[in-house]
Input
Amino acid sequence: MCGIAGYFASKGSLQDGQSVLSSMIGAIAHRGPDENGIYVDQNAGLGHMRLSIVGLEDGQQPMKNARGDVVISYNGEVFNYVELRDDLIAQGHVFQTSSDTEVILHLYDELGPDCVKKLNGDFAFAIWDQRRRRMMLARDRMGVRPLFYTWHKGTMFFASEAKSLLTVPGIEAEVDIYALDQIFTLWAPIAPRTIFRNIFELQPAHFLLLEGETFKTAPYWQLQYPDRNGAASPRSEDHVAEELLHLLTDATRIRLRADVPVGSYLSGGLDSSAVSAIAAKIVPDRLRTFSIGFESAEHDETAFQMQMVEALGTDHSALTCSTNDIANIFPSVIAHTERPVLRTAPAPLYLLSRLASSEGYKVVLTGEGADEVFAGYDLFREAKVRRFCAAQPTSRIRPQLFRKLYPYLSGLKQQSPEYLSAFFGAGADDIRDPLYSHRPRFRGTAATKMFFSQDLQTALNGYDATADLVSGLPKDFTRWHPLHQAQYLETSLLLPGYILNCQSDRMAMAHGLEGRFPFLDHRLVEFASRIPLGMKLKGLAEKHILKRAVRDLVPQTITARLKQPYRAPDSRSFTAGGMPDYVRDSMSAAAISDTGLFNPVAVEKLVGKCARDNPVGYRDNSAFVGILSTQLWHQIFTTQIQRHAVAAE
Output
């Protein structure tokens, strides 16, 4: 894991290229605290901040090929580099280093831009091909590693994080109001759009080519599902579970490849428990595990974490997160997410990453991705119940199923069937709507936009973020089963846009820590997409086939426990123990008016309500965190003095 930066001046050279690159990589030094390097020639420049994990002695970057005419700056890991290297040696290639970086260079020599199709990994890289005057950028299939680019005075600049681009003289941070609307509706911007106007994100599973004056981006992989009316799979559950376990084991095995120790997160849920159980059988010594608990009983899973520690015999470290902890670090969290968020969930992961890093670890395995791949979220079950209720909209029995979906939400237990039916939109939406599964979430989140200022609403002029989302769906989307449609929406938007970007990569790399995700191995993702629907969501039992696959590895207390999504205290984190000064200042009428994005009177009422009431509802929690994080984003990235402070953090 590392941080990369660079530029391509297609019409000439860039004055002070060395100095510009030095500032760019300095802004992302947290991503690679071990080494740094810069390459500059007449037209292009590449910079690199290194977190040394593979090829400790000879993996310095930017790295040139043997001829010296192709140079790479690379962030991430290629987990199948051992097999690829052996194949290339058999073809006559001679290697000078032991790093996976050089494997990409040799593959590029063989295949050009198609080299990405051979890679099994989490990566973002830039290759400068001096002979062809071609700059190539590429990003991994699932969107684990970030990569951003922009144009300024005819030069394309790119970097692992937007803050790096903002060090280039003349590039300033300005809010993209449509991206802000998307965040306050969908939880994430729709790539390539970002919260920074005119700064773009290279989409997952895409490469970018800039060759002379020719510019293009193109996908090299696409998540696909079978047609809804296709033939049923003849495979038995036992056969599918066996193949699933084999793939997950191999995905975990190759993600343990490193020249430094690899630890694992333990959340207390099925996914991290399965990964840790597999890893514990592979590592030569006791597996090192890390977990976080909460003072709030509603959010705490410590008891389940300790069950797994005892079952696996791991060498374990844990910390407890309080609401004060979340409030204290939240400005730093936003400096690293580089975008507003509607939940405080990234903050505890920031603390957990700091813990693992402080104990000398550079790499951890995590369980992210399993809920998207194996239909584990409550949303999938909720959509199934909503369709069930829509078939008999007058039924008083069917809406009561919603209580079973959310046992951790005590307020629902006392509600009438009519309330439950209305709350979850049972029968309110057209079941042919491509966003049917997500409409209740999007409606609930979009309610936060009532706090937008009149000027912002006027500028948006009725803009509909969900229409933008629908327009970008793949042509095969309507042929898929509704469950697969819902999985695609989670996997293509929420996973890379929020979970991986805001919670995973950014929070880990804030402390020079690399997260690795066995469930996001593309072989496993492709296999899971073809698993019969009833093996993933069996009745209302989520991740059925995964539980069956790991039943001999994970205690029954873990596989049989009720699903509890990862959550953290939201508005209460900033109001329970007295409001911190920065929150009071950021949410003041003067600060809200100065930013111009929200209604000062409405925000003042919201702050008062959150300070008085407990519990606070979904809309108000989302609005409070969203407005505060937007205000912090604006202060950090649009104020020159504070931006330099972030760069030097």
Notes: Residues 641-649 have pLDDT under 50 and may be disordered.
